[in-house]
Design goal:
The chain contains two helices and no strands. It is mostly helical. The protein has a domain at 2-26.
Length: 42
């Protein structure tokens, strides 16, 4: 049980860390998949 909880905690920390790293690099799905012809909410 302890190994399972450690794995879940590690997965959550990796996911949250990845979110912040990718957002700081400007790699959001809005920035990656939009083109000049697409109007996303301003």
């Amino acid at each position: 049980m302890r190994a399972f909880l450690a794995g879940v905690c590690a997965a959550v920390l990796i996911a949250v860390g990845s979110y912040f790293v990718l957002e700081s690099l400007g790699m959001s799905s809005q920035a990656v998949y939009s083109s000049p012809n697409v109007r996303l909410g301003d």
